[in-house]
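Assemble and predict.
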Amino acid sequence: MLLCLAGCGNMPKDPEGTLDRIRQEHVIRVGRVEGGSAADASDWRRVLARVEASTGAKPVFQPGMLEPLLLDLEAGKLDLVVGGRFDEKTPWKTRVTLGPPIAKAETPIGTTASHIVARNGENAWIMLVQREAKAAGKEP
Amino acid sequence: MREGIPDQLQGAMRRAERLEWWSIAWTISVIVVMGAAMGSSQTMKTAWIEDCLSLIPPAVFLISARVERRPANARFPNGFARVPSLAFVIAATALTALGSTLLVDSAMSLVSQEHATVAAVHIFGKEIWLGWIMVAAQVYSIVVPVVLGWLKLPLAKQLNDKTLFTDAMTQKANWMTGIAGIGGVIGIRLGYWWADAVAAGLISLDILNDGIRALRAASAELVDGAPRALDSDDIAEDASALHAVLDARFPGAEIHLRETGRVISAQIVGATPPDDTLDVRDYWPGDPDRAWRLGHISFVPPRSDRGDVPGN
């Protein structure tokens, strides 16, 4: 009965209404980390293209450095941050939601991975982005 | 009372010990299931910590039951009848710590406006919202403590065992947290980020209340206060009745009752024993089957140096 009260269906709602707004305004506010590698850019562009197709929205890019962009994301001024590389133990893991790793780089001192980052708690939006990231990873 | 657990309670005590072993096994299974489904939900984390801490009362009960059976020796001439009192303090402290931790945790996540991310998992190639997995884990975490708590309560009353009773209260806290957890997850599903932390906070207040009440009763027992009821800090009803009987039989004497583990010890100050031998059961006012509750009566004769004796 509780489940029925909660409403059937698989998708949660976004507390700040990110996915609804993107679908209504057809705009995705994307923070793009400057100075990223071309290989990483090609990976996140493939994911973003799928997200665009799925929502009918176009990205509006805000270039910048990683941490200021993450702060904007946390404050709700951005919907995604792309092009950032993170260590597995990054403290940002609790403050923002890192999508599945889309490109890993092994170095002698550790592993970093490129992630598409979303604001915490926007669960419907996060589910959509993560679904498209996974699907893009399976593309030939 | 020097020989540990009274004979009449041996059967019930063995049942309680078996139940506590089962309790530990089931609680570990709940910890594993909840840990696997935890995600970043505050209520889930709260419930998981609570499940971990709820291992303390059954473990303490089992240790104390073992020690309580040991015979008195030269180093412990009074035996180990007070071990359940010590176990009760530990269990009560665990319950209080549990409530406080959860309250602070949920208040902090509410103040810092933490939005729990609960995304999807893929099971057999199908995308499922992790929230539904959390709800399923919470349902399991409710059923186990409901059954265990229901089995433990009558045994705790029969044995007058406050550790077992506190353990049953911890089980109650567990299933209540489970229900709050489901509420929190459904709140997230509906887009209410605060539902998670509020649910955890409300439940932690109830747990803290139970813990403080148990801690007050446990402290009273340690400082030789009058015997307390199992479920509150009030004086136990059977102790009040005993006090009245002893008052009537020894007018003018001071009656000091205290609880030594599960049994009551009575000290009658300013009176001498009426006979050379005494049967404590003759003084027990209630159900004769519960006469084991009165473990010991001692007398302190009137003191001439304090002028208790007329003419001195």
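Chain A has a mean pLDDT of 88.
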